[in-house]
UniProtKB/TrEMBL annotation:
GO biological process, one term: L-phenylalanine biosynthetic process
Keyword Transmembrane: no
GO molecular function terms noted in the UniProt entry: prephenate dehydratase activity
InterPro entries: ACT-like_dom_sf, ACT_dom, Chor_mutase/pphenate_deHydtase, Preph_deHydtase, Preph_deHydtase_CS
Signal peptide start-end: none
One cellular component term from this protein's GO annotations in UniProt: cytoplasm
CDD domains: ACT_CM-PDT (cd04905), PBP2_Sa-PDT_like (cd13633)
Protein name: Prephenate dehydratase
Pathway involvement of the protein, from the record: Amino-acid biosynthesis; L-phenylalanine biosynthesis; phenylpyruvate from prephenate: step 1/1
NCBIfam families: PRK11898.1
Broad enzyme group: lyase
Keyword vocabulary terms for this entry: Amino-acid biosynthesis, Aromatic amino acid biosynthesis, Lyase, Phenylalanine biosynthesis
Assigned EC number: 4.2.1.51
Length: 289
């Protein structure tokens, strides 16, 4: 039985998406308090794989998780990616004294900062008087609300977390946008056995040579004339000195081709450093995985 590490406690979107992705076969899903713990457990072999939310259609890249992936030193390559909807709900203790307005007595909303940002319009219109408390995950917020026994506390989280902690769904699907999807990656030392995917991707890090005017243009040209599509390019600081950056790139092509390895060789020929973070199958929720 494979052990799958995710950001806990139980009931997070990460767990919900992992259960969806690993719907077939026997797996043990293990929660960890911090995302850094997910990486550590996977690197140490305590878990076989780690589930990492890396990007959201509303909030964009999860930069801290990208940095953790980079800092893993390439020892935990990306083995797969999938897309999963982030459906958030207002969760709490149903208050019979609130009358016709079920939100009238709610004075505090507890959740992860990203989840609160994704529900900005709902919170502003229905709970303008409430204060926010930020915690490490949506499920952690639900757990706190459960233990508080206070009907003036509410959390934002998944339907799974409400069921796990025996709380009420005060309002369903409160995110601002219907197309609120999160991209998850699976990290691990060994390739998992997965069904065929419609497409493959490769993720690389490129560090440009110093004192080389037009180096980024040269890098992008190596992909452009070969008609290789980059689905993402993002600069991140190397943390070595001010103004020193690397480029994180998602490429819509597998390394098991002729074109991509030759493009990487051309990039290295101009003095750029290339590190491959993974070449992996890509699955879509909309296509039913």
């Amino acid at each position: 039985m494979k052990r799958i590490a995710f950001l806990g406690p139980e009931g997070t979107v990460s767990q919900e998406s992992a259960r969806y992705f690993f719907a077939e076969g026997a797996h043990e899903f293990v929660p960890y308090a911090l995302m850094s713990d997910v990486f550590t457990a996977t690197a140490a072999g305590t878990a076989d794989y780690g589930v990492i939310p890396i990007e959201n259609t509303i909030e964009g890249s999860v930069k801290h998780h990208i940095d953790l992936l980079v800092e893993s030193g390439g020892n935990l390559p990306i083995q797969a990616e999938w897309i999963y909807p982030s459906i958030q709900n207002l969760i709490g203790h149903f208050d019979l004294t609130s009358g016709t307005d079920p939100f009238a007595n709610i004075r505090k909303v507890i959740s992860k900062d990203v989840a609160i940002a994704q529900c900005h319009d709902f919170l502003r219109s229905r709970l303008p008087h409430a204060e926010f408390e930020y915690v490490s995950s949506t499920a952690e917020g639900v757990r706190i609300v459960k233990e508080s026994l206070d009907p003036s506390y509410a959390a934002i989280g998944t339907r799974m977390s409400a069921e796990l902690y025996g709380l009420d769904l005060l309002a369903e699907n409160i995110t601002d946008h219907d197309n609120n999807y999160t991209r998850f990656i699976l990290i691990g030392k060994d390739k998992p056995v997965l069904k065929p995917a419609d497409c493959a991707k490769t993720t690389i890090l490129v560090t440009l040579p110093e004192d080389y005017p037009g180096a980024l243009h040269q890098v992008l040209s190596a992909f452009a004339w070969r008609r290789i599509n980059l689905s993402k390019i993002e600069s991140r600081p190397t943390k070595k000195k001010l103004g020193n950056y690397y480029f994180y790139m998602d490429i819509e092509m597998s390394l098991d081709t002729v074109l991509l390895p030759s493009a990487l060789q051309e990039i290295e020929a101009i003095g750029s450093q290339v590190r491959i973070l993974g070449s992996y199958p890509s699955y879509s929720y909309m296509a039913g995985l």
